[in-house]
Amino acid sequence: MRQRPATRRPRAAGAVAAALTLLLTASGLAACDAPSPHGTPSGPATSRPAPPPTPLWDRTPRSVAAVGDSITRGFDACMVLADCPEVSWATGSDTSVDSVALRLLGPGRVASHSWNHAVSGADASDLPGQMAKAAAHRPELVTVMVGANDACADSLDRMTPVDAFRESVTTAMEVLREEAPKAQVYMSSVPDLKRLWATGRDDALGSRIWQLGICATMLGDAQDDSAPARQRRDTVHQRVIAYNQVLKDVCAEDERCRHDGGDVFGFRFTETQLSRWDWFHPSKDGQRRLADIAYRHITAP
Questions:
Q1: Cα-flanking dihedrals φ and ψ of residue 187, to 5°?
Q2: Do 264 and 156 meet the contact criterion of CB atoms below 8 Å apart?
Q3: How many whole angstroms separate alpha carbon 32 and alpha carbon 158?
Q4: Rounded to 5 degrees, what angle do the CA atoms 212, 283, 246 make?
Q5: C-alpha separations of 154 from 81, 165, 184, 227 in Å
């Protein structure tokens, strides 16, 4: 008897397998129940759960840089008309203030791992330059508080326009991202200047010091309750609100930025929390309150 060619059985098996594959595909079962290479159903495909994404915000940064104006320099908190950076809410070493840097880094690392590039009298136009200096340290956290001097001009028409303010803050963030792309940012709102006026206006010494030219748009002629004076203060107040909206908006566009949600603007500074020399800048106690607000937002889940 003539033997069948040895190759016919594999061809038949291949044909059966091909037909079975077509049938399973047509019925929608091929992906789940197709025979495995060993002849047993493979069953539904299983996959391991994806690892959780690495959070962009680190609540324990190991270095801090600060930019901004006289508030961050601790101006008038220790002595009249002088910076006192050791009591700065952001990077100070004074334990009575317990700055953001002191809380995050500990006393042994504040001097070597924190940098204060804020400048008394600075406004938003100075922010990009300050940010470049801060970024050079490759900090893990940068604190930003700016805007009071933009509203505290000699006259209303010399206040920084909102669009210019936005451009400066945006540029500063771009500078940081270019030089230190992974740095986190805590963005503070501008304090409520009108509330500061209302708190200190009845102090005889404070009112006399304000006449020297501190924040003339808001504090000038502190006892004047005429309609033009009220309108002037309201105009400054609305400009501060506009600045705060800009700060919030710019921060929201950056995935590594946290805004204070308006907490500094909403904080009610009392007499003990304002400098006894100018009734405008924060005292040591006021600096501590700013540190409390910042630390709460920086370390929030």
A1: -105, 115
A2: no
A3: 72
A4: 80
A5: 19, 17, 34, 19
Find, among 284, 285, 276, the residue nearest to 204 by Cα.
276
- Return the SS3 of 68: strand
Q: Are strands 64-68 and 114-116 parallel, antiparallel or unpaired?
A: parallel
Q: What is the pLDDT of residue 264?
A: 98
pLDDT of residue 203: 84
Q: Which residues pair with 142 in a beta bridge?
A: 65, 185
- List pLDDT tens digits, range 190-226: 999 999 999 999 888 888 889 888 999 999 999 999 9
> Contact, 178 vs 138, CB < 8 A?
no
Q: Which DSSP letter does residue 59 get? A: S
Give the whole-angstrom CA distance, residue 166 versus residue 149: 15
β 184-187/114-116 pair status: unpaired
Q: Which residue's structure tokens are 């600045």?
A: 243
Q: How much is the pLDDT for 26?
A: 41
Distance CA 108, CA 17 (A): 73
User: Degrees (nearest 5) of the Cα angle 82, 88, 91?
Assistant: 130
The one-letter code for the residue type at 111 is A
Look at residue 36 and tell me whether its pLDDT is greater than 90: no
Name the residue type at position 135: A
Q: What is the pLDDT of residues 86-100, one digit of tens each?
A: 999 999 999 999 999
Q: How many CB atoms lie within 10 A of CB 73?
A: 27
What is the token pair recorded at 127? 């922010």
Count how many Cα atoms sit within 13 Å of the Cα of residue 203 in the half-sphere of its side chain. Answer: 21
Rg of the chain over CA atoms, in angstroms?
Answer: 31
Neighbour-count burial of 237, counting CB atoms closer than 10 A to its CB (0-12 exposed, 13-18 middle, 19+ buried): middle
Residue 133's Cβ-count burial label (10 Å; 0-12, 13-18, 19+) is middle
